Amino acid sequence: MEIPYTVTARPDTGLWNAKVGIWLFLASEVMLFGGLFSAYVFLRLDADPGAWPHGLLNVPVGTMNTAILIASSVTVVMAWASLKMRKFRAYWWYMLVTILCGVIFLAVKLVYEWPQKFDHFGAFIKKDKLEKYEKYLGNHHLAEKGLAPRTEVSGHLHNKEALHDESVKEYEIAMDPVNADPTNPAMDRPHFLYVPPTDKIATIEKEDVEYANMFLPKHSAYFASYFTITGLHGAHVLGGVIVFTYLWLPVGTKLYKRNPEHLANRVEVAGLFWHFVDLVWIFVFPLFYLL
Amino acid sequence: MSLKGFHIVFITLSTVLALGAGAWCLWIDSMHGTPAFRVGAIGSFVAALGLISYGIWFYRKMKRLRIIT
Question: Is residue A192 within 8 Å of residue A289, measured between CB atoms?
Answer without folding.
Answer: yes
